[in-house]
């Protein structure tokens, strides 16, 4: 593995995360090159969300370290940390949209973090023409431009997913992290949303890490799969080299795990 920081968008080194007495991640090593796309797969509770949060600098590792574009968030001051976080777009599992706001306002919120509170709110509720144009263009790219002025809670689950993607892109990130972005849509729409994410990331040259429940979908849409089980990486391979035994290993429960689970 290439450990030259300059060449990595994201890196975890011997990463461990513990909540109270519960170890959620242990010994995780991961290296992601700029522009690379990969899927994190694993059973519920295996630590995918926690790993994404740590990689995005939203959670400090208990042991080990993370580097984002070669910089360890733990070594940065508040201003530097905000700049690093702005370079990362996050599509949350539960989307985090404001239901009563119009679609254009929710997308505009993507850039709130880069301005003062007053300036940010002005840009959301009284945006400049160029900002309106940019939001319209983003909604076109995610295929729901006709929803620009609709109230967000009137949109379908799949459409809201697209709003969340547009909001993350409006932030102009270099890295996009998506946590189960298709948890609430049916399989056909899930495929369309994942295809959209991978296509947009490719076009924009973004690094993309997506946690995904459906193995089928992960296999169909990503060239690299990282399997997590009980907080540990059990495989990290090109999709073509991941076989049925890897998947069995990922989903089997053994006595040790059952014993340690409640500990
Ligand atoms: N803040 C926290 N405090 C205590 N335990 C936590 C916290 N966050 C996560 N956990 C625990 O860590 C484990 C891993 O959670 P995580 O959400 O990372 O898994 P996941 O693979 O994303 O699961 P899912 O697919 O269900 O979203 C779970 O057992 C969860 O209960």
Descriptive tags:
single chain; about 260 residues; alpha/beta; Rossmann fold; 6-stranded mixed β-sheet; 3-stranded antiparallel β-sheet; 10 helices; 9 strands; about 20% strand; globular; disordered N terminus; binds adenosine-5'-triphosphate; nucleotide-binding; ATP-binding; ABC_transporter-like_ATP-bd; AAA+_ATPase
Gist of the model:
With 263 residues, the protein is α/β, with parallel strands linked by helices. It contains 10 helices and 9 strands. A 6-stranded mixed β-sheet has the order 5-6-7-3-8-9, with helices on both faces.
Characterization of this structure:
Keywords: ATP-binding, Nucleotide-binding. Residues 10-255 form the ABC transporter domain. One of its GO terms (molecular function) is ATP binding. This is Phosphate-import ATP-binding protein PhnC. It comes from Rohdeia mirabilis. By secondary structure, this protein is of the alpha/beta class. It has two domains: 1-87 and 177-263, Rossmann fold, CATH 3.40.50.300; 92-172, no CATH class. The protein has ten helices and nine strands. It has helices at 48-55, 78-86, 103-108, 117-125, 129-141, 157-170, 187-204, 215-221, 244-251, 255-261; strands spanning 10-19, 22-32, 37-41, 63-68, 88-91, 175-179, 207-211, 224-229, 232-238. The strands form two sheets. The chain has a six-stranded mixed beta sheet with strand order 5-6-7-3-8-9, sandwiched between helices. The radius of gyration is 19 Å and the shape is globular. Mean pLDDT is 86; it is low at 1-5 and 255-263. Residues 19, 22, 24, 42, 44-50 line the site of adenosine-5'-triphosphate. Adenosine-5'-triphosphate is lined by residues 19, 22, 24, 42, 44-50.
């Amino acid at each position: 593995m290439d450990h030259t920081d300059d060449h990595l968008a994201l890196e975890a080194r011997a990463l461990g995360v513990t909540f109270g007495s519960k170890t959620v991640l242990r010994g995780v090593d991961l290296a992601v090159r700029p522009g690379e796309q990969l899927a994190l797969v694993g059973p519920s509770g295996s630590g995918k969300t926690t790993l994404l949060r740590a990689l995005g600098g939203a959670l400090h590792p208990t042991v080990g370290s993370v580097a984002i574009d070669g910089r360890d968030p733990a070594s940065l001051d508040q201003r530097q940390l905000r700049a690093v976080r702005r370079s990362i777009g996050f599509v949350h599992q539960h989307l985090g949209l404001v239901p009563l706001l119009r679609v254009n306002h929710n997308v505009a919120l993507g850039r709130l973090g880069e301005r003062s509170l007053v300036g940010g709110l002005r840009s959301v509720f009284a945006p400049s023409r160029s900002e309106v144009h940019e939001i319209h263009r983003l909604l076109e790219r995610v295929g729901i431009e006709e929803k620009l002025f609709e109230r967000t809670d009137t949109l379908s689950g799949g459409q809201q997913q697209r709003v969340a993607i547009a909001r993350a892109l409006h932030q102009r990130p270099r890295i996009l992290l998506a946590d189960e972005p298709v948890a609430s849509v049916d399989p056909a729409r899930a495929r369309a949303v994942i295809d959209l994410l991978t296509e947009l990331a490719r076009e924009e040259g973004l690094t993309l890490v997506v946690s995904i429940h459906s193995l089928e979908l992960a296999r169909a849409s990503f060239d690299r799969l990282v399997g997590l089980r009980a907080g540990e990486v059990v495989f990290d391979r090109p999709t073509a080299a991941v076989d049925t035994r890897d998947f069995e290993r990922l989903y089997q429960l053994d006595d040790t795990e059952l014993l340690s689970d409640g500990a």
